[in-house]
Amino acid sequence: MTDGRPRGWGFWRDNSLTLAFGGAFVLTLACQAVAGHAEFNEQLTVDGLQPLGFADYLTSSDFAVDVTENWQSEFLQFFLYVFGTVWLVQRGSPESKEVHKTGPESEEVQRMGDHARADSPRWAGTGGWRQALYSRSLGIVMGGLFVLSWLAQSITGTAAYNGEQLRRLEDPVTWAGYLGTPDFWNRTLQNWQSELLAVAAMVVLSIYLRQRGSPESKPVGAAHTTTGVEG
User: pTM for the complete prediction?
Assistant: First the structure.
């Protein structure tokens, strides 16, 4: 026991945000699998085909494309936001830097090179390619995850689309051919537009609205024009 709390409590407290959202992700993914399996089998029954077992559905392209099409839009959102907020600002929003701080900022402000501190990441204090890579690593990784999930969506989408084509006794298409179909772009763009709308809404609404105690909000008493300040 430590301070009246069970041993190990600090780990759960210190990582509660990640653990909560990670757990919620696993739960919702499981629920999606159950609902998707039921819907898929309903469609098979309508088409006069045998239902698919749950395990087989989990390894099917139909389930994979439904999952990856959402993943790629989420990573696109963060990739664009990470890079966009280097140069783009919104006066009054805590989601933005202060208006006069556009750009990559100085090494002193970013604690790089000679301005790195004892507790700074090792590559922050080095020069050359390692510092250049590390100073952009978040955007690079988000961009890479977007590309990988988009590629996974396009491949699994091709397989799912061709499965539907065969059930209709129509010719399958190639991967390149699927990229030009309305099915692919409908799946893709309906996710992109929703993510971009959510980001824009958060940026604008956080100018005027508050959430006490949240770092995504300004302090309750902060002026509407206050920019780049978190609660």
Answer: 0.84
